């Protein structure tokens, strides 16, 4: 995913609340809590894939966000396992 971020082909979208985002997030991610996503849609690029994530595998936020995005015509992927999985993979 790092190469894609550098090439600007994806937007990484953290749909957790602002406090969780402030504690830890994927570098380069933008924070739009799920409750604010519909209002934020006009500001998202339609020419990029939106990669959404939340807390962990059982979290409902990113699947809900992915559905909203897909229903509104965005290309979307979900980071399975969320920030928990991303953190596990980057830390020894």
What does this structure look like?
The structure is a single chain. A four-stranded parallel sheet has the order 2-1-3-4. 24% of the residues are buried. It is α/β, with parallel strands linked by helices and 92 residues long. It has a single domain, classed as Oxidized Rhodanese, domain 1, CATH 3.40.250.10. The protein is globular and about 35 Å long. The two termini are 19 Å apart. Helices cover 39% and strands 17% of the residues.
Nutshell version of this structure?
The protein has helices at 2-7, 18-23, 37-40, 61-71, 82-90, and strands at 10-14, 30-31, 49-53, 75-78. It is of the alpha/beta class and 92 residues long.
Structural class: alpha/beta
Tell me the CATH architecture. Answer: 3-Layer(aba) Sandwich
The amount of helix comes to 25-40%
Number of helices: 5
Number of strands: 4
Sequence of secondary-structure elements: HEHEHEHEH
The radius of gyration over CA amounts to: 12 Å
Q: How far from one another are the termini? A: 19 Å
What's the level 1 CATH class? Alpha Beta
CATH topology-level name? Oxidized Rhodanese, domain 1
What general form does the structure show?
A: globular
As for the number of domains, it is 1
Q: Overall pLDDT, averaged? A: 90
Widest β-sheet, arrangement of strands: 2-1-3-4
The major β-sheet equals: 4 strands, parallel
State the CATH superfamily name: Rhodanese-like domain
In terms of DSSP E residues, the strand content is: 15-25%
- Parts with pLDDT < 50 across at least 5 consecutive residues: none
């Amino acid at each position: 995913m790092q190469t894609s971020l550098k090439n600007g082909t994806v937007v990484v979208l953290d749909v957790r609340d602002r406090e969780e985002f402030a504690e830890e997030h994927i570098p380069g991610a933008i924070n739009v809590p799920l409750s604010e996503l519909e209002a934020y849609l006009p500001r998202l690029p339609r020419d990029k894939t939106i990669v959404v994530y939340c807390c962990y595998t059982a979290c409902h936020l990113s699947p809900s966000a992915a559905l909203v995005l897909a229903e509104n015509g965005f290309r979307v992927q979900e980071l399975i396992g969320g920030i928990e999985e991303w953190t596990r993979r980057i830390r020894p």
